[in-house]
Amino acid sequence: MTEKVQTGRGNSTNTALLFGESILRMGSGFVIAVFIARQYGPSGIGAVTTANSWVMIFLGFSALGLSGVLVRDLVEKPDRRGAIILTVSLAKIAAGLLLLLAMLGGLYLFEKSPSILSLALIMGIGYVFSGMDTVDCLYNARIEFKRLVSLRIVALGASTVAKLVPIYLAADLRFVALGYAVDYALVYLLPVIDLMSRRNHGTRDGEVKLRFVPAEAIRLVRRSWPILISGGLAQVNLKIDIVIVSILSSVASVGIYSAATRISEAWSVLAMAMVTAAFPQLIRSARTNIGHYGIELSALMRRLIWSAIGGALLVSILAPLIIGTLYGPDFSASSSVLSIHIFAGVFLFVRTAVSRWLIVEGLLIFSLWSHAAGASINIIANFILIPKIGINGAAWASVASYAVSSIVFLAFTKRTRPMLRLILASVLPAKFVREYVVAQASMMKEFRGDD
User: Fold this and answer.
1) Which residue in 123, 190, 198, 392 could disulfide with 151, CB within 3.0 to 4.6 Å?
2) Is the Cβ–Cβ distance between 188 and 130 less than 8 Å?
3) What is the model's pLDDT at position 11?
4) What one-character-per-residue DSSP string does 37-48 give?
5) How many angstroms separate the CA atoms of 379 and 242, rounded?
6) Mind listing the pLDDT tens digit for each residue in 68-124?
7) CB burial readout 67-92, b (16+ within 10 A) else e
């Protein structure tokens, strides 16, 4: 078949489509969480959140860090698409099943509530289907974003109904967990069903003759292992606080804590929008005009930092009103958590841009180390602070870990220090730091070895 050619306008449209779908998914998740909290109380939302966190921490590694590499290989090696799709899918599913067993072992050893194990098992079985995301990568390689996003939205709608019905009926939480499993499975199954049903895009197409070639999986994992570990550690950093709260305190405490953290995490949508809009131009400037690159990167950081600080101050002041309106009086203790955790958003905003910058500069190995450092700080701080100050300690631990994984780690190597200096300078008005940030960008170019 004839491949489509991507244009600048097409790229912007595709980015908008994918970003829009992400916002819909995040918004749906937030609304579902509010409904669970109001119907089942702190213990109910705590149980669902704890189970989901166990799934994300363990099965997050099953992605094998291959998505970016897969898209490139599917574009460059169309004759091997069938081998890549089947082999990698089977490898991911096998990894998911092994990690599911490991998760059950962890739950058996550490989790006090037996119901958490059953909820996590149901969700985890659904998440194993994420191994089929290689077909998503094929859609990306073929630049069929509209079709892929349409399928994802259909899956989102169906899975949202699958969650809302048991919540409305106040059914057993296992039926709510089944809705999450449907969500995880359907978003990956629909593209597979669509691919196989299309006459020119199925296995009858010579382009996609499915075959199992173990060497393909080994080759891809060898190339992408830093991304594999980095992605898994990022999930640990994001979710480990929930697990530790459930171990050291109670499921109800998780519910109180997660009610606040969901609000501060939803705030990150703004950072995603700002970075997604700015980085295509930054990628071009990094190779063509280093002065503009430094100025534009600094301007982006300035917008991110001050938007996050302003939003954090406002939310911190209004925390009791926000919590009371969304969740009701049973969650009043969440307001103090929110007033602390929202400031983690300042570092989360910065991290959103730093992650893209590491890709532009070819420094993905540092993404691994940053997530490892952040996860380590998060675990240590949680075990120290939660016994002393309760769930507020978990909020402070999150602030500390995000600070380390977004900014502090940049200080430890000369390749990343120019970015640290640029971030710190960007707190000031542009007219005072223009020459300084250009100098930092020039140092980045020198380290890259560009001509």
Assistant:
1) 190
2) yes
3) 52
4) HHHHHHHHHHHH
5) 11
6) 666 667 766 777 777 777 888 888 899 899 999 999 999 999 887 889 999 999 999
7) bebbbebbbeebebbbbbbbbbbbbb
Q: In whole angstroms, how large is the CA radius of gyration of the chain? A: 22
- In the prediction, which pLDDT does 1 show? 46
Query: Residue 359: what pLDDT?
Result: 80
In which band, very low, low, confident or very high, does the pLDDT at 234 lie, cut at 50, 70 and 90?
confident
Distance CA 244, CA 382 (A): 7
To the nearest whole percent, how much of the chain has pLDDT over 70? 89
Q: Which two tokens stand for residue 428?
A: 């000031």
List own/partner pairs for 218-223 with CB under 8 A and 24 or more apart. Answer: 220/64, 220/66, 220/69, 220/70, 220/73, 220/84, 220/88, 221/64, 221/65, 221/66, 221/91, 223/69
Q: What single-letter DSSP state applies at residue 61?
A: G
Tell me which residue of 155, 157, 235, 174 sits closest to 48, measured CA to CA: 174
Residue 328 region by backbone torsions, left for phi larger than 0, else alpha for psi between -120 and 50, else beta:
left
Q: What letter represents residue 178's amino acid?
A: L
For residues 422 and 297, the answer to whether their CB atoms sit within 8 Å is: yes
Q: Where do we find the tokens 């002065």?
A: 291
Q: Where are the alpha helices (DSSP H) in 267-343?
A: 268-288, 290-327, 334-341
H helical segments located in 111-213: 114-127, 134-141, 145-168, 173-197
Residues 91, 218: Cα–Cα separation, whole Å: 9
| Residues in CB range of 310: below 8 A, 6 or more apart | none
Q: Which tens digits make up the pLDDT trace of 156-166?
A: 999 999 999 99
The CA-CA-CA angle for residues 134, 139, 143, to 5°, reads 140
* Separation of CA 181 from chain center: 18
Neighbour count for residue 193 (Cβ, 10 Å): 12
Q: Which helix (H) or strand (E) holds 9?
A: helix 8-59
Cα separation, 327 vs 283, in Å, equals: 42
Q: Which amino acid belongs to residue 66?
A: L
Quickly count: other Cβ atoms within 10 Å of residue 314's Cβ: 12
pLDDT at 443 > cutoff 60: yes
Helix H or strand E segment including 147? helix 145-168
Nearest Cα residue to 141 out of 76, 214, 92? 76
* Segment 256-273 mean pLDDT: 87
What pTM value is reported for the model? 0.85
CB 399 within 8 A of CB 344: yes
